[in-house]
Amino acid sequence: MSPMAPNTDGTVDILPPISTELPKELSLVGKTPTIAVIGGGMSGLRAAEVLLQKGYRVVVYEARDRLGGRISTSNHLGEAVDLGPNWIHGTDNNPVLSLAESSGSKLHHFSEQCPTYGFDGKLLDQAEADELSELMWKVIERAVEYSKHCHPAIPVEKSFYDYCVEKAEELFGTGAAEDEKRKKELWLSLAEMWGTFIGSPVERQSLKYFFLEEPLEGANIFVASTYETMIDTMSKPSLDAGIVRLNTPIDEIITPAPGDRNCVMLRSSQKPEENCEVDAVIVTIPLGCLKREMINFQPKLPKRMLEGIDSLSYGTLEKARFSHLKAGYSKLKIC
Ligand SMILES: Cc1cc2nc3c(=O)[nH]c(=O)nc-3n(C[C@H](O)[C@H](O)[C@H](O)COP(=O)(O)OP(=O)(O)OC[C@H]3O[C@@H](n4cnc5c(N)ncnc54)[C@H](O)[C@@H]3O)c2cc1C
């Protein structure tokens, strides 16, 4: 964030167009600009790495005692488990895939080694599980296309799950035959998996706006070796450069009015010794922290940005993992 002219409502626009060139304000600094990155998750670490490559002075401020943010691997159960991300969704042109490959992560495709259990707790026949899963993905694609082209006509209360129920009848019939009913119910329970992708129950996902969830192009890859090696790889440039300040939550960012001193002030009430002045700031803290106004921006963020922060929200995703170590490999299922 570099000092800019305030808007009429007293807020300041802080979103310069993304460019790899030095912003004009920084080129006037007359020395190598110092850029603060707030947040040591994937976004902050990548920003720091690029800035270091370009020769800037960089400092990464991280509130917690570790890097990685939402990427977090636990060994508490005696095996490495990702508490945060463990998928790479949409591999086409996805830099996370390159990162996973360059960091030597073990990857496998969504459908590989993905045992599915029936209502009786018994493992489903893999061919049947694959068939149902393939049908599920086809219906998801059709729902995206349908909502994209017909959304004005779709009632707002109609959910993706309602659509699945209709499709289930087309696919498996409406008869009372036991096998038909069983397949239909199994398939519908697979449909609920889409809830875990999005983080809200399928019954609450609006069909009208389903196209907004259009899956990214390419495969869905499971990072079997966990995201740990990826975050280690991303952390290395910042750690090697000695620019990481852990346990340092920034709680105030003060941008002076134009004409005043050409720098941004950072304050950390938990670590006042880290209070400093920098030439620009990149804020990568999560939406939840912005919603809770955990950083006091002076002047306030622009109205349109505050409205965006207010109107966006997250769903909740609960994860459980169990594994059967068999014949030297680990089978994983996320539910
Ligand atoms: C359970 C779960 C499962 C997920 N699964 C997937 C998946 O399979 N695939 C996928 O692609 N994505 C997944 N995601 C999303 C993915 O984790 C995030 O998109 C990504 O990690 C965000 O990185 P980030 O750097 O933008 O934010 P974060 O990782 O949240 O990093 C922000 C950092 O800012 C720090 N911070 C906050 N406030 C301050 C402050 N005031 N001062 C200093 N530091 C501060 C935080 O401590 C944190 O380290 C999942 C997320 C969760 C929670």
TrEMBL record:
InterPro entries attached here? Amino_oxidase (IPR002937), FAD/NAD-bd_sf (IPR036188), Flavin_monoamine_oxidase (IPR050281)
What's a Gene Ontology MF term here?
flavin adenine dinucleotide binding
Where do the Amine oxidase domain residues begin and end?
Answer: 42-320
Name the GO terms of the biological process aspect.
chromatin remodeling
- Which PANTHER family does the entry mention? CONTAINING AMINE OXIDASE, PUTATIVE (AFU_ORTHOLOGUE AFUA_3G12150)-RELATED, FLAVIN MONOAMINE OXIDASE
This protein is called what? (Perigord truffle) hypothetical protein
